[in-house]
């Protein structure tokens, strides 16, 4: 059956600000769905309050409403668009589903004659109400762990008494495992039960007998209205049951499952999906499997929507789940849709992978002082990376190289943990760095049987680790001169970086690179083609690997490279890597717009990134996507292969910027602002000299490299003093200190964490107002795209401040200083492209805090508030295609727009929630107000100093 012709206009609900447990994987799904619906001529209306994402860009939907996700906002939209036929709530995570249910209960959809598509409300209710779900599973013969529902403290105590410990508590209708915990000891039960009941919006928890040590799997399914069901991907958690899937290292396809059990699991998943309701769309099912020969299967849960794992599965297989799910919601059948990869076969197929993907979460515990760093049922990670390789070992190494935590891969980088007691502790209580600790344990000589006994990680994975360790030992017996081609090739095939091999051989990374070149051990690129090359793939989506040479009959040796280089002029955009606090999807938004702008200028566009959650790694955004670590060795090989006109680094946050120096050193053209200018802004000493020459005020400062130097500087500067390390993002390590004891403690701590770092000591301007400006500069003219005033005082990180556009409290004299300083600095730094400058205003004098000649966190917000495509303009300026005078700027904003930070403190109990110079927010929303008399503004302003911590 083709699409339902009655559907002309569809409302999509987004997922709102990014929080731990619900990140930009739903913006990716929503963006795909919007594009999919528009292909069919459907009018799209979007509600989402997140200004940082590409999803809320005017180009994505016919009508975009940046409004709070409430039923009041829905009614406003439905009144303005009486033509809306249906709502698609499955693309916006739990937030969208919960809002859809609330609107349904209030009769809003019925009042406005709006159908719900892509899911069945009954299906949501069955899967969210754990008691109903359990009864249904028992009825259809799907085994579940012994469990019971508690809606009161007393009932919970009774269940615990019956089951005994360990137990699992799961709160109903929550996201990211909120309120869930494993209870090992009776004395912990009361507190954890109370927390679960409080967090659940319906004050209900399910208490399960804990399946400690069982293996965990996920299947991603799609189903159409004709009851065709396909399994898109099987995902195995390397970590056993007891760790939230969002915090688990996951592998696709499943590695340690027998074929017989996998077939049984498939049948079970299809049976479950069909039993929960009659709907067309995506579904995610989670299972536990006993770690013995019986391989007993128990169902954990089912989500009748695209999930966090759907984005991962889409990137892993190249099968665009959300895009197809949106088509199915319109009424199409799978056999009527085209496979997006081959363009010739139907979408009614199950992908077959001839490669392995490994996902590793990215945590930010250092931002939550005093947080519990052990992993459990409540998700704590803020982002994730994915590595693609021909083997588990290669994919695992590539994923660890993508994390950007100053590791070069597993081991062989001089950063191994050698403390036996600490290793045992981290294995016993699952730690964020367990992926590295397993390697360290094997290196130390702890038997695999002991590691398995402690962690319950399947022996297959542990043996893969052991093989890597044995290879490491073998390579260490050679030197750069004596190592042979076969051994070097094996190391590269198993994912070892040149830096790691150099560490083993006791030489330089460049020597390993040159040796590889001499021996012909070179990367080749393979297509992510979803059908193991059975059909010709058309998608330009690649990963790298190493192959043994093949020999033709005439004696020629070659290795097969599937990435064909064209004659076109090319631009490479470096992505921003995994999401983390301080570098979120704002930079992904910038990268996507950069790619699209370069394409408009006639360039072939190439994207390099390793984040599976985002739109930039969608296979049809750039002309070519390399899903690779944003790690020097990988990038350099792609540049040598593609030979681009240049590389854009100023859109991918600190991740891309950090590579600017090396790119320059190797003679690679940086598009836009040069490395010298980027570095000048980071080097506080040189930058201050530039400010002095231009008569621009800045707070008194000095640079220290030791605690003694810092103490001497403090005598001159006066307290309070703001201490900050060089070359960091999101205010990492910044602190306001008020006496010599605090100063010494913080400086010693920073230098222990960042040896050799130059620390900047500024006199902190107590009570100053903070403001910032974003501008585009073409080397001759400067256009200020926006000036924002922070509601909170100077000293709270700009990413954690409520920022008002335009300013609400700055006089004409101060505004003129801001404009003059911005233009002078942009030109003095030879900026070509974007620049962000932060100011402190005290006694009507505007001081410069810092300048960043790159895309900033605030550019997407300003672009949305004013309705102008600033990144598009800035990219065209960087490419030299346009000058500022070529653009017709027409910003439109009635009243004020406020960028509001959103925090995820509820994931970390007993954590200091005070704000300061180090960023802690995970996301943001946008609030439009007509005037400063608005109650919401008054409330924000009255609380502005409450959280400032020194």
Keywords, please?
single chain; 950 residues; alpha+beta; seven-stranded antiparallel beta sheet; 35 strands; globular
Oligomer: single chain
Largest sheet: 7 strands, antiparallel
Low-confidence stretches: none
Helical content, roughly?
A: 25-40%
User: Strands across the major sheet, in which order?
Assistant: 14-13-10-11-12-15-16
Q: Please identify the structural class as seen in this structure.
A: alpha+beta
Task: Report the count of strand segments.
Answer: 35
Shape: globular
- Mean model confidence by pLDDT: 91
C-alpha end-to-end distance: 64 Å
From the alpha carbons, calculate the radius of gyration and give it in angstroms. Answer: 28 Å
Beta fraction: 15-25%
Tell me the number of helical segments per DSSP (H or I, 4 or more residues long): 31
Describe the structure in your own words:
The protein has 950 residues and is an alpha+beta fold. The protein has 31 helices and 35 strands. Helix 20 links the parallel strand 21 and strand 22. Helix 5 packs across helix 6 and helix 15 crosses helix 16. The longest helix has 18 residues. It is globular and about 80 Å long. The mean pLDDT is 91.
What is the secondary structure topology, with strand pairs?
Elements: E1 9-13, H1 25-39, E2 43-47, E3 63-65, H2 71-80, E4 86-88, H3 93-105, H4 108-111, E5 115-116, H5 121-128, H6 130-140, E6 147-150, H7 153-163, E7 167-171, E8 181-183, H8 186-199, E9 205-209, E10 215-223, E11 229-237, E12 250-252, H9 259-276, E13 281-289, E14 297-303, H10 308-317, H11 321-329, E15 356-362, E16 383-389, H12 392-402, H13 420-428, H14 434-444, H15 448-455, H16 459-475, H17 485-493, H18 498-505, H19 509-519, E17 524-527, E18 541-545, E19 550-551, E20 557-558, E21 570-574, H20 585-600, E22 604-609, E23 624-627, H21 632-642, E24 646-648, H22 653-657, H23 660-665, H24 675-682, H25 684-693, E25 701-704, H26 707-717, E26 721-725, E27 735-737, H27 740-753, E28 759-763, E29 769-777, E30 782-793, E31 803-805, H28 812-828, E32 833-842, E33 845-852, H29 859-866, H30 870-878, E34 896-902, E35 923-929, H31 935-942
Parallel strand pairs: 1-2, 1-4, 2-3, 4-5, 18-23, 21-22, 21-24, 22-23
Antiparallel strand pairs: 6-9, 7-8, 7-9, 10-11, 10-13, 11-12, 12-15, 13-14, 15-16, 17-18, 19-20, 25-28, 26-27, 26-28, 29-30, 29-32, 30-31, 31-34, 32-33, 34-35
Helix pairs in contact: 1-10, 1-11, 5-6, 6-9, 7-8, 13-14, 14-16, 15-16, 18-19, 20-30, 26-27
